[in-house]
User: What shape does this take?
Amino acid sequence: MSKGSDGMNKINWINEKECKVGNVLFRVETGDRLYASAPDAESFVIGKSRRQLDTLQDLFLGKSIRRICEIGIYKGGSVVFNYELFQPELIVAFDIDTKPVDQLENFINIHGIHDKIRTFYGVDQSDRDKLVSILEREMSNAQFDLIVDDGSHLLHQTKTAFNTLLPYLAPGGHYIIED
Assistant: This one.
């Protein structure tokens, strides 16, 4: 797997629906196929199109992404994808579902990266107090280079998360709201 001059891994497309970043295989699923798709031992499911993933890579070529906040864990593929692509110091990921994503948690355990990927389940993105409490504890006055909101897709929750998280975005950082 090749890395760019920024140290970022590159996306290696196997076909239109499969890619590798680092040594991790991802299955790209959208629409109804995403909801029907089950994780397996060989690959992570990621709910983004090839175009979205290529755009993400192109947008950040040459930039250092050290800290990432993700709203919406779902099947865990996006968290692992961003970890493999950007090799950040820290990813803080939230999901409203209280049930941990086994495949993601196994990945974290196997690679011993509890200090690099911090997952928080049962967190509603419109719960400002809970978000702030976690971020104050996890961030130690640092700021995110990238915040990705792929959570509820509802206006009120998205606006609340945006207003809550914006002060945690580093100058020159990027805030992406998906869908």
Notes: The chain has a mean pLDDT of 93. Helices lie at 31-36, 50-60, 77-86, 102-111, 128-139, 155-165. Residues 2 and 10 are 6 Å apart (CA to CA).
